Task: structure prediction
Amino acid sequence: MRLDPDRLLPSDPATRAVARRLYERVAGLAIISPHGHVDAALLADNEPFSDPAELLIRRDHYVTRLIHAAGVPLERLGVPERTGDAITVSPREVWRTFCEHWHLFAGTASGYWLASGLVELFGIELDPCAENSDQLFDAIQEALASPEFRPRALFERFAIEVLATTDDPLDDLAAHAALAADPSFAGRVIPTFRPDAYLHPLAPGWADRVARLAQRCGSGASSYRGYLDALAERRRYFVAHGAVCADHAMVQPLSVELAEPDAAALFARGLAGELSAAEAAVFSGHMLIEMARMSVEDGLVMTLHPGVYRNHSSDTFARFGPDTGHDIPLATSFVEGLRPLLERYGENPDFHLVLFTVDETTFSREIAPLAGFYPSVYIGAPWWFLDAPDAILRFRAAVTETAGFYRGAGFVDDTRAFLSIPARHDTSRRLDSAFLARLVCEGRLELEAAERIAVDLVDTLPRKVFKL
Result:
């Protein structure tokens, strides 16, 4: 394997030279990661990574899903089953299966990130295959045993300034508190309030979660007003532990404004298990407006990640649980569904709303126009199925002509795979440099302006939008 120093930059020599100059301005800037899924305990505990399979394969559904599509059962990749039974396949066997299927990742974003990590972090120069799988496994395992590959050492090596996690509202945030109190750790690891399972009445276990929320906060389990107060209290707890953001996932972005008696009636019927799907959607839409109201009050940035059919394979979900590779994008619409929320808060200077999508048809049709009018609305970076080179360039072209560069929120890596963070951010920096270079060479942008924008996309915008 070889990493071209000009990878992802334009092929035209003149444009590439400009892109290279722009990239050099941002390549060494600190990483600001305001949305991701790395566990804070990884850094709090600072234990060595156990083996290459655990580090790079088992927990990364970008990787396991594509090998599964080739007919390999997830259990052969070491994905743990919900039964809690011990994994019978060895890490070395999992790694060998991965190496045998390395060719599947050619041209994919996952392949690009994996190759970047293998070359830059471990000095791997061989394309993985069945014949060299043991050799590569041993080389990575030896590196993981060294102090330089402990999580905190890598955090510093990656030049991560801010890393946001994603957390349940009832999490005690002990790992975050431990990191904040540790004078030997200079990084900033902040929680993110993720209340989805407490807002959607048809979510499995919703009534039990509401009861635990009420118990934790000392409110009545059947009180709608107590429910709102408990959510607000937990948000304040997160803010006190450094949170800057509340993240929301839903199938479709829907906001509904209800009078309190009507919302309370739906809440009571939800606890009794009597809501239809349509009624549950109305209640969830109302709670989205309530979350926006709370964001105005407590300052948490509101991010929306809609448009995914979660757990498409019921058999896989039953055996292995969520986040195991079978979530599929859906067509999404923002304009009508978010109008009640934006009518109320869209021009409020204390409200920041970042819209993400996995339906790229919405970038130019809906998200960029909304961000091009409402001061509160910002454009989220390409996410999940769209955080790939060609999709990122399509995104940049789709939104810039309508909303410019300064209605964006900066890049997010959205990853559980800790070692992929630098490669993902580097990908974005290279591609933005490529896009800006084209505008410069087409006479549409001065070079000095492009240099300033390149830095702002990496540093200024995420600090501003996420209130860092």
Summary: The domain at 48-149 is CATH 1.10.2020.10 (uronate isomerase, domain 2, chain A). The chain is about 50% helix and 5% strand. The two ends are 38 Å apart (CA to CA). The mean pLDDT is 96.
